[in-house]
Design a protein that fits this description.
mainly beta, 4-stranded antiparallel sheet
């Protein structure tokens, strides 16, 4: 069974940077779409970025374009999200997610979820 474990969250001032990591284990199929999704209290989950494990092709959603970078280290089975120029509105619980095959910007496309890591950006 696939397991995803996030780390790297924390508190930072606006304009700062953080790098989130997601350690994956239990993969039995190489054709995964991996992504990052975030959620703030009282709001629905929001797609942030995703990458296709085989091709390495990446997609970004909304206001994170140009500031966030999703990447993977296949040797370490780890997914990353480099977040630069952070803004207070980036404050959220960030989840690592995966699904076999295709995924889009809708968080419901994903079937497997990590437990989340909190990111807090102060003004």
């Amino acid at each position: 069974q696939v397991r995803l474990v996030e780390s790297g969250g924390g508190s930072v001032q606006a304009g700062g940077s953080l790098r989130l990591s997601c350690a994956a284990s239990g993969y039995t199929h190489p054709n995964y779409c991996l992504g990052w999704v975030r959620q703030t209290p009282g709001k629905e989950r929001e797609g942030v970025a995703r990458i296709y494990a085989l091709s390495g092709r990446t997609y970004y959603d909304g206001s994170v374009k140009g500031r966030f970078t999703i990447s993977q280290d296949n040797a370490k089975s780890t997914l990353y999200l480099q977040m630069n120029s952070l803004k207070p509105e980036d404050t959220a619980m960030y989840y690592c997610a995966a699904v076999v095959g295709w995924c889009g910007s809708d968080p419901t496309d994903f079937a497997i979820w990590g437990q989340g890591t909190q990111v807090t950006v102060s003004p």
